[in-house]
Amino acid sequence: MQVVAVYGTLSDLLSVASNKLGIKATSVYNGKGGLIDDIALIRDDDVLFVCEGEPFIDPQTDVRPHEELTGSHTDWLTLNVGGRYFTTTRSTLVNKEPDSMLAHMFKDKDAWGNKQDHRGAFLIDRSPEYFEPILNYLRHGQLIVNDGINLLGVLEEARFFGIDSLIEHLEIAIKNSQPAEDHSPISRKEFVRFLLATPTKSELRCQGLNFSGADLSRLDLRYINFKMANLSRCNLAHANLCCANLERADLSGSVLDCANLQGVKMLCSNAEGASLKGCNFEDPSGLKANLEGANLKGVDMEGSQMTGINLRVATLKNAKLKNCNLRGATLAGTDLENCDLSGCDLQEANLRGSNVKGAIFEEMLTPLHMSQSVR
């Protein structure tokens, strides 16, 4: 601002202003933007604005970069991000992340071309809510996000603008903000509520869930997918598991006495030490239970109905299969070492390649013939 004495004619005033300000003054305006064409209109306390012919611009409301107003270069600039204005410096946008998109946008004075709004602010079509933490990070190097701001949104903006160092900070912050995974077992009450809320015709998928130690006895669990679920030490006595998928499930130490296991799929499951006394694996419709490759070490399956069951390459070492119905069962390659098979019906069973070392066959309902190629 320059203070000058006003005297003579309007031309004299313009001449003095030109000399004082180093410009070629052609017009004079009052503080309200009114063009002055007679020096008599000027009062003693007036603040005047002179220009070189361009329209009047109120410096109190204009947000254009200062270099645009005066013709000289300055580091300050204003951004219009999604309709919200941010005033910052070119060095803030460039120095901390020189390889970022923002740095390339504002490294040179005219890098962003003519993409400015009517007030001279540079237009950026992004979310102002997520841009603010990024701008503050470029200012002081600290990640500070107000409550209610989604970190995932800030992360997406950081990736868009290529702020690599901030991306790492955000990924760590997001990971730390996630609630700890709840690995506690599902209780009977929770599971029953889940069953009641599921339509009967809908497939119930429980893959990988933790039911360890839960009491699921006498529940209707037909057709449920328990693949890779943790059912260790569960009470499944008298449960209906008809056609359930227990593939690779952990059933070690569980109690399944008198359970309905018609058509069950237990491929490669672990039922070591489980109790399956009096279970029914026999499906009248001909659908055979499949326990191929299952770990059944030390299981107690006494008195179970297992007609046509598939136990190929399963491990039944030290298992109790006393008085089981294994008519037509597939036991090819099965490990039956020290297994108690006394009183079993093995008629038409396939024992080819099975290991029966130390197995007990006394009082078998069907004699074991050498043609079955046991070892």
TrEMBL record:
Ranges where the BTB domain occurs: 77-147
PROSITE patterns in the cross-refs: BTB (PS50097), KHA (PS51490)
Gene3D superfamilies: E3 ubiquitin-protein ligase SopA, Potassium Channel Kv1.1, Chain A
InterPro entries given in the database record: 5peptide_repeat, BTB/POZ_dom, KHA_dom, Pentapeptide-BTB/POZ_domain, SKP1/BTB/POZ_sf, T1-type_BTB
Domain KHA span(s) in chain numbering: 1-68
Pfam families reported in the protein's UniProt record: BTB_2, KHA, Pentapeptide
Stated name of the protein: BTB/POZ domain-containing protein KCTD9 isoform X2
Organism: Apteryx mantelli
Encoding gene, per UniProt annotation: KCTD9
